[in-house]
Every structure is written in structure tokens, then in C-alpha cells.
Amino acid sequence: MSVPGKIADAKRQVRQPFYRDLSLQVLAGMALGIATGYLFPKFGIDLQPVGDAFIRVIQMLIGPIIFCTVCSGIAGVNDFKRVGRVAIKALVYFEVVTSFALVIGLVAINVLKPGVGMNVDMHGAHSSAVDAYVAQAHHVVTTSEFLLNVIPHTAFSAFASGNVLQVLFFSVLFAFGLAAIGERAKPALDLIDAASGSLFWIIGLTMKVAPLAAFGAIAYTVSKFGFGTLISLGKLVLEFYLTCALFLVMILWPIAKINGFSLLRLMRYIGAELLLVIGTSSSETVFPQLIDKLERLGCEKSVVGLVLPTAYTFNHDGTCLYFAAAAIFLAQATNTPMNWHDQLVLLAVLLLTSKGAAGVSGAAIAVLAATLAASNTIPVESIALILGIHKALSSAFVFTNIVGNSVATIVVANWEKALDRTVLRRELEAGFVPHEPALPRLERMSGGRAGH
Fold it and tell me: Which residue ranges does UniProt annotate as crossing the membrane (predicted)?
């Protein structure tokens, strides 16, 4: 048996006690956080830095990880045509699926009508809480500004600002440059691979405190907003959770089945990441882990390195569901008349403005404000109605985004014949088994990259 084969067998034999499972630890942290926030609200408020610190550490590493992954993947392939083909397929897939998300969001909110009967009068209303979002909306309204913002002012400013799209743009150009100079790029690629290994080691270390981060984030949320706000606007929360579930069943489940894998098993495989984004309401906290898991599922490194960062920028399935649901809910709550023609116009605006969220941390509310301003029908000030439950809604749409991005990466890899289906089936059937600390190092020394 080869060394990589022995390593694979060793991984299969690693079965940790249930209490060391990260998914269960995160779930326990969230449960404890809910109880703490409810019983000790003042202490729960003080726990905000715990969740924020974890998110900052992950955000600190995302730019370098995207750079290392994209450069290693593209330069390793050394095929410019293939890179362009993968990018085009991914973008077409993203646009089609997000369009389905918008349609499902519009239909569900019109059928369930959670805002009808609220009769909120926004005439003369003003909320200082909305001002910041309205101001931020001006930065994501125009398509030309968005396209220009893809290009960073300097190579370092993209990493300094944490703008995912700018980092991706620079990384792709740099990778093409490495591929163009051939063998002379080998020392640089070796350095990039070594840097990538050290970054993922830091991620592995950071994930050990993920349950504590989930505890702090949930405790703060419950303490800050309480259960009263959720109950008063519970119809919208329930409607939106149902809409996300419908999207998973009606769109992502058939896509997964057509491409030969189980959506439920995939969700189980990335279960720890899904629980973590529910607790933190941030998709960035699981980006590095998704890269590792998708490669372990048999997707080629080059495809993962290009598709997943692009998906984080353009494939906002859950966020599009949120935009559609929230916009029509506010129209219903404020008795703003909107026929199907008006809603289709709103859908067209959403297709453009939803891309404005790329690279803007926590921009969902700002982009919603931009959409309402562009449609010029629903009062922008009405956003104040949903600020209190935005956390509850964001947990659902970030969860949906992560599932959608994982499915998209596997699908594009399958289309490109860059997916080892044997590895995919074996991994999904067995479930995720964490590496022992020594195994990744041994694997790198052996040069084994099973399934890639």
C-alpha cells in the first residue's frame, strides 16, 4: 500500500469521543450562550468581545489564505483557458441560482403575507439607527462604482481592507504571472505552499475556541435584543426560515441529486461550520475550513481556490432570499401598494444591488437600503422595523449562503471533471473525521494529495 493510502486509512481509524466533536461543542456553546443571555443579560452584553475577537482572527487570515490558495491552484494548473472556463461556468451558475432564490423569496412572502395588517405609518418618521445604513447604501448603489472598486488602489490595500473581491482580483493576476514564467516560479510556489500550511495550522488552532466564540456571540445577541423583539415580529422570522428551507429543498437538493451527491450528507459533513455561522452570523468565520473540507471531498485544489472565493463574492443565495422577503414585508407593513409588475422591477434591481454586498462586511442592511432607494416606492426609513430581528434573519441567510457556496463548488468541479467521485462518496458516507496533528505534516512530506 502506498504512503498516501496508509495515511487515508489512518484518518479513517481516528474516531474521537463524542464530546470532542466540534459540532457538538459549538452547539453546547450556543445553548449555554442563550441561557446566559436570558438569565444574566448584563453579563451577556459584556461577552460581545469574545465573539468579535474570534471573527477578527479569521478575517485577518482570509486575505492571505485566498492569495495562497488561488496562486497555488491556478499556477499549478498552468492552463489559462481552463481558468477562464471555470470562472465563466461559476458565474453563470451563480446568476441562475440567485435568480431562483429571488423568485422563491418573492413568491413565499406574497403567499404568507407576514406584514399585512401591521399598518405602520412612516410619514414623518425618522430613526437615527437607520441613518448609518442609508449613508452606506450610497457606496453600493451604482454598478460602475462596484466594477471600479474591484481594482485595489495598491496590492497591499486589498489585504489591509479585507475586501475579498479585490484580494481575489490581485491573486488571479499574480497567479497568471507565476504560470507565465514557468519553472522560475517554483521557489515562489514552494514558499506559497509553506505559507498556506502555516495559515491552516493557525486556523486549526483558532477553531479550538470556536465553541467559546459561539457562546459569546449568542449570549450578546440574546442580551441585546431579547426574546420580546423576536416574538413581536415572529411571523417574519418564521416566514423567512421557511423560505430558506424551501430553497434548500426545491433548488439545492435537486442540483445536488443531479450531480450525484446527497445534500443532507454534505450538510452533515460541514455541520460544525453551519452551526458556527448560526452563532456568529458571519460566513467569513468558516471560509478557511470550507477550503480544506471541499478539497478533502475530492474537488481539485485549483477549482476550489477559484470557485469558493468567487462564490463568497457573487453567490449570495440566502442574502437574496432575505432581500426579497424583507423588501416586500416592509411594503406590506407600510401599506405600500406593489403589484407584480412593481415586484418584478424590484427583482431586477435586486439582481444588480445584491452584487454590491461583495467585499462589504455586514452590508445586507445597507444593500437593502440601496434597493429601496433605487426602487423609490418603499420608504427607506421602514428598515427600522427589522433592525431588531436582523440578527435572527442573518443567521438563516448566512447558513443558506454557506450551503449554497459548498454545493456550487462541488457542482462546478463536477462539470470540469475535476471531482474525484469515489473520494466524494467515501467522505460523505463516513462523515468528517478531523486530522490528527501529525497527519497533515506527514501527508505534505509524502507529497500525497489523494483525489486531486
Answer: 21-41, 53-78, 90-112, 155-178, 199-220, 240-258, 344-372, 392-415
Looking at the domain assignment, is residue 452 inside a domain? no
Span 100-140, pLDDT tens digits: 998 899 899 999 888 787 776 655 555 555 555 555 555 44
* Beta strands in 50-192, from DSSP E residues, in sequence order: none
Q: What is the pLDDT of residues 362-374, one digit of tens each?
A: 567 767 776 776 6
Domain assignment present for 301: yes
451 in any annotated domain? no
Q: Tell me the chain's radius of gyration from C-alpha atoms.
A: 22
* Euclidean distance between CA atoms 296 and 276, whole angstroms: 20
Tell me, what DSSP letter sits at residue 436?
A: P
Count of C-beta atoms within a 10 Å radius of residue 314: 20
Using alpha carbons only, give the angle 162, 168, 172 rounded to the nearest 5 degrees: 150
CA dist 257 and 238 (Å) reads 27
Integer Cα distance of 270 and 289 in angstroms: 9
Judge residue 133's burial from the number of C-beta atoms within 10 Å of its C-beta, 0-12 exposed, 13-18 middle, 19 or more buried: buried
Flag whether pLDDT at 11 surpasses 60.
no
If one counts the domains in the chain, the total is: 1
CATH code of the domain containing 95: 1.10.3860.10
Bridge partners (DSSP) listed for residue 5? none
Find residue 419's DSSP bridge partners: 299
**pTM surpassing 0.85?**
no
| Chain centre to alpha carbon of residue 300 | 20
Q: Write the CB contacts of 299 (distance below 8 Å, at least 6 apart in sequence).
A: 409, 410, 413, 418, 419
pLDDT tens profile 56-86: 887 788 788 878 877 877 776 666 777 788 8
